[in-house]
């Protein structure tokens, strides 16, 4: 995919809205009323002079040779009003790579609505059509890199078996490094149409805790668990607003 311009992403969101019905239309209206593009961003830690000191809560596997990440995530209910939002996703390369992130996940908004999305950073995310999200759903999320510029992102509703996939090939926006795999609750950004002036959205509360179960990554062709992961918390105004812990193959993050 090429870099998505403001005009192109509007057209894309319109197409998605037509296919996906009410939920996507609400997402479209919400975005156009605010900023031009939604984006999950690289990990920012101890950002100086900012209200969001850490945009990620969750678990990061660091090293080399990470080509895939997957987990099953329960869909929580968001709180805090329609302008507040949060997201849960799996991905590779958000920690130290800088040039690209391959990721997929779900957003919750403080008004009880949801979006399902995929993203090849630094492009904006795009909504999946053909999958409707409800509180309590179990969503299997996975990303697979088949090269540094190609791969796929998949979400599957384990209740209905409904599955959506986005393939990427010969991406020119940025190349993967395969130096991390991550399982993340994020305070994501919204940006102007040219990708500048990005701002964190007000972070929505969520309940119950989000569990990333059966979480694993592929490193140099082998399946690896979360046992070597570094934990991080979303930190806003110098206060942790998530509390994450790992037990076996499950990462649990609560809103605090
Ligand atoms: C998953 O399937 C169930 C049962 O059909 C449905 O109630 C729910 O809304 C679906 N969720 C998603 C994310 O498709
Ligand atoms: C993605 O690629 C896989 C494997 O080549 C293929 O089976 C599938 O149909 C593709 N999906 C889409 C949405 O293009
Ligand atoms: C990006 O967009 C904003 C507002 O839409 C505009 O003010 C700014 O000049 C643009 N920057 C570039 C580098 O195009
Ligand atoms: C975030 O920064 C702090 C302070 O520099 C550091 O101790 C911590 O390990 C960092 N977290 C991650 C996940 O890298």
UniProtKB/TrEMBL annotation:
Active site, per annotation: 186 (proton acceptor)
A Gene Ontology molecular function term of the record: glutamic-type endopeptidase activity
Keywords in alphabetical order: Signal
GO BP of this protein: proteolysis
Keyword Signal: yes
Signal peptide: 1-24
Any single Pfam family the record assigns to this protein: Peptidase_A4
Tree of life domain: Eukaryota
Keyword Thylakoid on entry: no
InterPro entries per the UniProt record, alphabetical: ConA-like_dom_sf, Peptidase_G1, Peptidase_G1_sf
Protein name (Swiss-Prot/TrEMBL): Scytalidopepsin B
Taxonomy of the source species: Eukaryota, Fungi, Dikarya, Ascomycota, Pezizomycotina
């Amino acid at each position: 995919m090429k870099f998505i311009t403001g005009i192109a992403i509007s057209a894309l969101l319109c197409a998605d809205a037509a296919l996906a019905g009410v939920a996507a239309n609400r997402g479209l209206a919400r975005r156009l009323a605010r900023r031009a593009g939604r984006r999950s961003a690289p990990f920012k830690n101890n950002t100086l002079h900012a209200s969001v000191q850490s945009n990620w809560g969750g678990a990061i596997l660091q090293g080399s040779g990470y080509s895939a990440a997957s987990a099953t995530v329960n869909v929580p209910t968001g709180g805090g009003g329609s302008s507040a939002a949060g997201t849960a996703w799996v991905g590779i390369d958000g920690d130290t790579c800088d040039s690209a992130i391959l990721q997929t996940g779900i957003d919750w908004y403080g008004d009880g609505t949801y979006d399902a999305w995929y993203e090849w950073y630094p492009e904006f995310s795009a909504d999946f059509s053909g999958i409707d999200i409800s509180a309590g759903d179990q969503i299997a999320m996975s990303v697979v890199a088949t090269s540094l510029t190609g791969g796929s992102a998949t979400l599957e509703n384990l209740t209905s078996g409904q599955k959506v996939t986005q393939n990427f090939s010969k991406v020119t926006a940025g190349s993967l490094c395969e130096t991390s795999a991550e399982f993340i609750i994020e305070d994501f950004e919204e940006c102007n149409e040219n990708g500048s002036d990005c701002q964190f959205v007000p972070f929505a509360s969520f309940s119950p805790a989000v569990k990333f179960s059966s979480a694993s990554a592929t490193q140099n062709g082998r399946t690896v668990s979360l046992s070597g992961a570094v934990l991080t918390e979303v930190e806003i105004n110098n206060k942790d607003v998530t509390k994450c812990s790992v037990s076996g193959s499950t990462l649990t993050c609560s809103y605090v």
